[in-house]
Specification:
D-Maltodextrin-Binding Protein, domain 2; 12 strands; single chain; alpha/beta; 2 domains
Length: 333
């Protein structure tokens, strides 16, 4: 039948077209030579990722600019208001990326790799794609705090026993957004106001907070990324973690800026982030990949992802509002 022949031709031609499209991007990227990346990925983690990228695309020079989430947002919006964002590719939290999308910072690009990512981790309108996820847990220094004595849930964070003992990342409003989307805006904000009375110890950046926790600067770190603690634990540091119920989950995303200076190289880099090689490199850097079939570095994390009660932090826009509220509550900058 005619429709069968048409379907058969489509099945043959679509992969060929996709391959030709990718090759065209590769050739254009060779001419461009470089791509500028603003990301929250630390230099150490980027080196692992970049080594894998260089193995696949030796010609691609990635100019990596590390900025914490809040500092990146401030820089990007300043450049956007001045007329052009100087980065080709942005890597940040979903909350920040949704703000960029709302403000007209991002350009559309639907990567051919996106269909391999887990459900819900790609923007249906094509403006961003999830590259990794992370789970926010209660981390502890095992020399100063045992699991049996550590807070088991969010209500225990409010106990007088833990006043002055808990560090929190001042650079991203994950705890605030998580509570407001889980409990509802009023109840979530009321909870965070109570939590702010616990003499929290604000630290900018999860990596810095992990290092200070391992060094014994404080016994607890709340709304902490499990990937950072697992990596430190594997090195023999005196740290451990407990999940809460629900466990807040975040998505780190990647996107192209509108009218990037190096458009083909930008597309190629985004494709690599989502490819098997890119996702495996991110896993080697201690990240939790979101591509189907690529495991995280930890069985405990994979078990929590599969069996735990999760609440994905996914709030549309209003990043500046959240950061303003968060700054007032925990001393974020």
């Amino acid at each position: 039948m005619a429709w069968v022949r048409i379907l058969w031709l489509m099945l043959i031609l679509v992969p060929t077209f996709s391959s030709a499209q990718t090759q065209h991007i590769v050739e254009q990227a060779k001419k461009e030579g470089e791509v500028i990346l603003y990301t929250t990925m630390t230099v150490r983690d980027f080196e692992i990722f970049n080594k894998a990228a260089k193995e696949k695309y030796p010609f691609l020079n990635v100019r990596h600019v590390y900025l914490s989430s809040s500092r990146q947002a401030a820089k990007v919006m300043q450049e956007h208001r001045a007329g052009r964002v100087q980065a080709d590719v942005l890597g940040n939290s979903l909350t920040a990326m949704l703000h960029y999308k709302e403000q007209g910072v991002l350009g559309k690009y639907e990567s051919p790799e996106a269909k391999k990512m887990i459900t819900g981790s790609v923007d249906p309108e094509g403006y961003w794609a999830g590259m990794t996820t992370d789970l926010l847990i209660t981390a502890l220094n095992t020399r100063d705090m045992t699991k049996t004595k550590a807070p088991k849930d969010y209500d225990e964070y409010l106990s007088p026993r833990f006043k002055g003992q808990m560090a929190i990342n001042s650079g991203v409003p994950y705890g605030l957004v998580g509570m407001m989307t889980f409990k509802g805006e009023e109840a979530g904000l009321a909870y965070m106001r109570k939590l702010s009375q616990q003499a929290l110890r604000p630290v900018e950046g999860f990596t810095h907070m992990t290092n200070l926790l391992a060094a014994g600067e404080f016994p607890l770190a709340i709304f902490m990324q499990v990937s950072k603690i697992e990596a430190m634990k594997e090195k023999g540091a005196p740290v451990d973690w407990l999940p809460s119920s629900p466990t807040f989950a975040t998505i780190s995303t990647v996107a192209l800026t509108k009218n990037p200076l190096h458009p083909a190289a930008a597309r190629l880099l985004l494709d690599f982030y989502l490819s098997p090689e890119g996702q495996e490199a991110l896993a080697r850097a201690g990240k939790i990949p979101v591509r189907r079939g690529v495991k995280s570095p930890s069985k405990d994390i994979d078990d929590l992802l599969e069996h735990g009660k999760l609440h994905v932090i996914r709030e549309e826009g209003e990043y500046s509002r959240y950061m303003k509220l968060y700054s007032e509550l925990v001393g974020a900058r």
